[in-house]
Amino acid sequence: MNAFVLSPEAEEDVWSIWQDLAQQAGLAVAADRVEATLFAKMELLAGMPSIGHWRYDLSGEPVKFFSCILT
Q1: Which of 8, 24, 34, 48 is 20 to 30 A from 15, comparing alpha carbons?
Q2: pLDDT tens track for 30-66
Q3: With the CA atoms of 56, 41, 1 and 32 taken in that order, what torsion angle do they form, in degrees rounded to the nearest 10?
Q4: How far apart are CA 35 and CA 42, in angstroms?
Q5: How far apart are CA 33 and CA 61, in angstroms?
Q6: What pLDDT, on the 0 to 100 scale, is given for residue 38?
């Protein structure tokens, strides 16, 4: 397992996503699957931080992107 730490803001974002799916849309099973996928991808990124691709066109700073496809 690759260690990573979420900021309080990131934790709140994940919780908000879960709440939106589970409570507002009534999709608790889907919310759990989305949360599990997000954490699996964060663990993957913690172990291989060089994956992804650079996007120089979106900011004055270099920004790296990694797609997370939810199924």
Answers
A1: 48
A2: 899 999 999 999 999 999 989 999 988 888 888 899 9
A3: 150
A4: 11
A5: 33
A6: 94
